[in-house]
Amino acid sequence: MWRYEDTRAGLRDALRLSSAMTLKSAVAGNRLGGGKGVIVLPEGQPPPHDRRAVLLDFADAINVLRGAYITAEDVGTSSKDMEVIARGTKHVSGLSRRRGGSGDPSPYTALGVHAAIEAGVERVFGSSALKGRTVVLTGLGHVGLRVAKGLLRAGAKVIATDIDRAKRAEIVSAGGRWIAPDKALAQAADVFAPCALGGILSDETVAGLQVPIVAGAANNQLADDNVAGQLALRGILWAPDFVANAGGIINIDVELERGGYDPTRARQRVKGIGDTMRRIFDVADSTGVTPLDAAMALARERLAAGA
Fold it and tell me: How far apart are CA 115 and CA 20, in angstroms?
């Protein structure tokens, strides 16, 4: 659920996001495809008067697809919203544990990003230990705040920001340091972790980065695919976003397994994101391509195997 200038913009975003979800599920080894649904809210207008009605309309649209698409919580929605949608369709996942679902996927997304950061730190510094490493993180939403707190528990120093200044108190109370949003991209650190919305890495912003590693939860971090080459030219290791942030969809895949949801298995699979990232870095190094190219090749290989 997001605001767009018109329905065409919403459709373009749905197509872009569904393409990314296809790659994400393939690299993660899921049995799922890559569908994505978008609920378009008009820009400049107040929130819908009857949110429940909007969600149930979306449920009707899901039913038209007869199970080809299963929705789940994402940006602008919550697990409570999924419970409303479930009143109108059975093709919904991520319901609360008391209703037999896997609950909020954010902790699993954050866990996978943490594993990806460890893999990047290991590649650059020779050890996956985060103690004493400095991470500058943008975006303190459901996932970003969890990533930040996990890094702090691991002994990292976290410098964080968000466009919502109200997030400052929570990150500071957790032991992190606040930085102004316009200073984050030029902040010297060991890792830059983008965890807000996408498109943050462009030729201009990459030129100003002062980190050897970029790994975060944000989708579509690259303004365009050519930026992957610019990162490589600057000697910056980029963890492909659709690999790093796959924890949530891996958790949903476990939820849909025949034997039912097993949180222990979900955590084990999500932690495997680190090993997948190491494989991608290995291929990139041995073949002289970018991590993006290596990740795309792995996605195509797994899509072909499942065809």
Answer: 20
> Tokens at residue 165, please?
């200044």
pLDDT tens-digit series, residues 198-225: 789 999 999 999 999 999 999 889 999 9
Element (H, E) at 57: helix 51-64
Model pTM score: 0.89
285 and 140 housed in the same domain: yes
Q: Which of 24, 36, 157, 167 is catalytic?
A: 36
Which residues constitute the domain of residue 145?
Answer: 106-244+277-298
135 with 46, same domain: the answer is no
Pull the structure tokens for residue 4: 């767009």
Query: Is position 271 annotated as part of the catalytic site?
Result: no
Mapping DSSP onto H, E and C, the string for 170-234 reads HHHHCCCEECCHHHHHHCCCCEEEECCCCCCECHHHHHHCCCCEECCCCCCCECCCCHHHHHHHC
The closest alpha carbon to 104, from 82, 76, 137, 89, belongs to: 82
CA–CA distance, 222 with 214 (Å, rounded to integer)? 11
Rounded to 5 degrees, what angle do the CA atoms 124, 130, 135 make? 80
